[in-house]
Design a protein that fits this description.
- The strands form 7 sheets. The protein has a 9-stranded mixed sheet with strand order 2-1-3-4-13-12-11-6-9.
- The protein is rod-shaped.
- By secondary structure, the chain is an alpha+beta fold.
- Helices cover 16% and strands 31% of the residues.
- It has helices at 2-20, 49-56, 112-123, 141-148, 164-167, 245-259, and strands at residues 22-28, 70-76, 94-96, 127-131, 151-154, 159-162, 173-174, 177-178, 182-183, 190-194, 199-204, 211-216, 221-224, 266-269, 272-275, 281-286, 289-292, 297-298, 303-310, 316-318, 322-324, 337-338, 359-367, 373-377, 387-388, 391-392, 396-406, 411-420.
- Helix 3 (112-123) packs parallel to helix 4 (141-148).
- It folds into 3 domains: 19-259, 3-Layer(aba) Sandwich (Rossmann fold); 267-324, no CATH class; 337-420, Sandwich (Immunoglobulin-like).
Length: 422
């Protein structure tokens, strides 16, 4: 039996290793627009042919390649409505949107429901690359703008010149080399004149200063102003070899998206909060107040916790919140006087605490002035009426010893005096 379990464990471990060493890229197939220049998808017959073979070459992406992960490409979503299936994709996949001529008679049009599905998948952590173009070239930008909120304008020629934030990413300084600039191509080059407020600009057009490549920090999607930065019109070479800066830019982009961290998810292990990945910076909050900048958080009090992390590229992302309510908070109070005279006020001695269920063990002992034990209990819900051996004790001062262990493993030890008054 142990041998069988060992084999199963090894198989599971090998599958985990193989899976973790694979980059899955999904792309809309060229059949979505079967006529015209169907070269703006990863399976198109032109334009991106060199881009595809570079990704599939083991010298570039493979166990012994420049980036030690193998790429698998899945082409699909070729008909109107089919893109809603993206909802079933794992969120660690990369999705390359591609581009299509919306007015071509053969184009299977994109619907608002499809774009909603893409957006919602991305919001859950899916890794999306959108490559657009000015003047509505490709899918209907009004549908995309309703979600991502960008707009671009014509400018020829136009470039992707890295910003400081861009130079700090693998896109411009990655495993395949350094990119000083990337070029757009064709006649529909441009720049963004509107981008989401919560964005990181990775590149601008040096002639206008306007963004040409940015990351939407709400969705962590990478959005380029022209599809041709990834095609032969922008300078991607034919064949599998990576020979120029445009090739480097393309390969580095895929590397960047693969290394982009997932959305932060908090796990609670015995009141230690940890995350599902390693991030660049951390800021933990309890009830809206900053409490720590460590990667893990040792919780010491109740509250609503969440964390803001910084991912590759500089975007800051908030996790969902987690409520911690297992700490025993409040003050345990034992009165120092009581009067068992049946007047309805302080007739019995008892303890007061906000959450009695938080008390795990309890021990109270009371002594008279001669050191004789007159009362003892292990019940935190006790009521002592001042009697000993079935007779009422006289007015006097008693000494007590109290030991409490709480369910959160904290302790309380107290000693003091209690006055009985008639």
């Amino acid at each position: 039996m142990r041998f069988i379990l060992l084999i199963c464990f090894l198989q599971f471990s090998i599958l985990n290793i193989l899976f973790s060493q694979t980059i899955n890229i999904n792309s809309i197939t060229w059949s979505r627009q079967s006529s015209g220049d169907n070269g703006y998808t990863l399976d198109g017959s032109s334009r991106m042919a060199g881009s595809r073979v570079k990704l599939l070459d083991a010298n570039n992406f493979g166990a012994s390649g420049t980036y030690s992960k193998t790429i698998l490409i899945y082409d699909g979503y070729g008909t109107t409505g089919s893109l809603t299936q993206i909802a079933s994709l794992p969120v660690n996949n990369i999705f390359f949107f591609g581009s299509f001529i919306k007015n071509d008679a053969s184009t299977q049009q994109f619907t608002s429901t499809e774009i909603d599905s893409v957006y919602n998948w991305s919001k859950r952590g899916g890794k999306l690359i959108i490559a657009t173009a000015p003047n509505g070239f490709g899918y209907d930008l009004s549908i995309l703008n309703s979600k991502w909120g960008f707009h671009d304008s014509l400018k020829t020629p136009s470039y992707l010149s890295p910003t400081t934030d861009g130079n700090n990413t693998d896109i411009f300084n990655g495993p395949f080399g350094t990119v000083f600039y990337a070029t757009q191509g064709g006649t529909l080059q441009g720049y963004f004149d509107v981008i989401p407020v919560n964005s990181k600009v990775f590149a601008t057009d040096p002639n206008t200063g306007n963004p040409t490549l940015f990351m939407d920090c709400t969705t962590l999607d990478l959005i380029a102003a022209d599809i041709d930065v990834y095609t032969d019109l922008g300078g991607i070479t034919a064949g599998s070899a990576i020979t120029n800066m445009q090739d480097i830019f393309w390969a580095n982009t895929i590397t960047f998206m693969d290394k982009l961290q997932p959305l932060p998810i908090i796990a609670d292990t015995t009141n230690t909060l940890s995350l599902n990945s390693t991030y660049n910076d951390y800021q933990w909050y309890n009830n809206g107040n900053p409490v720590s900048t460590s990667n893990n958080l040792a919780v010491t009090q109740n509250g609503t916790y969440y964390v803001e992390v910084t991912v590759n590229g500089g975007c800051k992302v908030f996790s969902d919140s987690i409520v911690i309510d297992n700490f025993c908070e409040g003050t345990l109070y034992l009165p120092n006087t009581f009067s068992p005279n049946n007047d309805g006020e302080n007739d019995v001695l008892k303890i007061y605490y906000d959450n009695m269920s938080c008390i795990k063990t309890f021990a109270l002992t009371i002594y008279d002035r001669f050191g004789e034990k007159v009362f003892e209990t292990a019940d935190a819900n006790f009521n002592w009426d001042g009697t000993y051996q079935q007779r009422m004790l006289n007015t006097q001062v008693f000494a007590y010893s109290l030991h409490v262990e709480f369910t959160d493993k904290t302790l309380s030890d107290k000693k003091g005096n209690i006055t009985l008054v008639h």
